Structure formats: structure tokens, C-alpha cells
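WARN no homologs supplied; continuing
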Amino acid sequence: MNKKFANLQLHQVDSALTKLRDACLPSPPSSGWAKAIRESLGMSASALARKLGVTPSSIAKFEKAEADEKITLASLRKLASALDCELQYSLVPRKSLEEIMQGRALAVARERLRPIAHSMSLENQSIDKPASDKQLELLAKEILDGPRRNLW
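OK structure emitted
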């Protein structure tokens, strides 16, 4: 992928994800959203089952699967639609994508430098910490400037 395009894509996705990361989203109810919304609407499991063309016991299974985090997205999407809701699905990184990449580049650089540092220490040729840190920083930058697949 073209490096400029890859950087543009990274910034666009990161920008969208920052909004999600900064949002104060409520935790899901222990019974799951589908059951909580259905009950809040005063809708019985039988009524929801009729809307979906399934049995009431299927609704109980769907709701339990959601609460247990074992429901499929397709099933959750059907439940949401029948409840006149929109399913919004996202993966929200804990840090920015750039921070994740920088952290990974440093880890890869450390892995690459570890055998060299070990050999140098065995030969009593160790370098001081500032020089070692600079070497690590330069290698991490080189890794980041290269193909992103080299990070993984």
C-alpha cells in the first residue's frame, strides 16, 4: 500500500476511533441490551418471537446468549431490528493507533537489539544507557518508516 495512503488511512481511522474512545458509553446491563430494551418497552418474549418468526424459547436463548457474550452478530442484528433499534458494532483501541504502532516498533527494536547487546556485554564492550536508548529510538523509527507488516 502506498505510504501516503496508509498514513491517511491511519489518521482517518484513528480520528474516528478517538471519538468512540472519548465517549462515555454505558456498560451493558447484566441481562443484556435486548432483554433490557424489550422489558422496558413492555414487550413480551412471545410478542418479540412473533415479530421474528421464532418461538418464545428462541428469544430466551438469544437473550441468554447476548448476556453471556456468545450471540452472533447476525442474531443480534435481527433482535435489534425487531426492537426498532440499530446495532452499532465497533472495536475501540485503548490507545491511539499511532501509539500502538510506536509501542510495537520499540518492542521489535528491543528484540532485535537484545542479542547484540548481550554479545557486546560478554565481550566487555557495553555502551552506556543514553547511547543504548538512542540506538533503540533510531531503530524503532527505521522500523516505523518501513513496511508496516514488519511490525508484526
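The longest helix spans residues 97-122.
OK
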